[in-house]
Amino acid sequence: MRARKYSFCLALFALAILPTCAAQRAIILVRHAEKIADDLNGIDVPLSKAGQERARLLAEMLKDSGITVIYATDTVRTRDTALPTARKLGLKIRNLEQHDPERAISRIQHDNANDVVLIVGHADTLPGLLEALGYHREIRIPSNDYTNLFVVIPRFGKAPSVIRVGYGEDEDEHDARRKNPPSPRRKSPTPPGAP
CATH number of the domain at 2-171, out of 3.30.470.20, 3.40.190.10, 3.40.50.300, 3.40.50.1240? Predict the structure, then answer.
């Protein structure tokens, strides 16, 4: 996790040294954190304990990022992912229309022209939002991956600079450690006559 945190620090450093332009200084996009289940028959699914912990980690990582506006889709899991960051920064969470990424980004570019914006969305909405921001590479986020964080820096007349980093632990890493726990440390043999 430490390496992931350093990667994010590098992303924020890149944000600080890039020249400003007429659009946002930066847009940070994340998927909501872990939820308690994949489907509860149409019920708005809340975060699991792991998701709540990831949301707190996100707030800690973003506390010095300069975020001035936070958007989240109208679901419990996205809003609860954004909530610790909003509380830490003293900001309200604004509603993000998730079904029309072009319109959502157009609105953000109009209403928040000089801000650093955080957007909390979904695995299936972040790719469309990134494309609406001018990033045309294919993005796939597996259903069990909650680690993706994108920093988008608009550049006037050019494609944006995009940095993709991971934060926190992902389920695969956690499962791998559980299936293959580290071997116990062996004690060094004590030389004869040693106390």
Answer: 3.40.50.1240
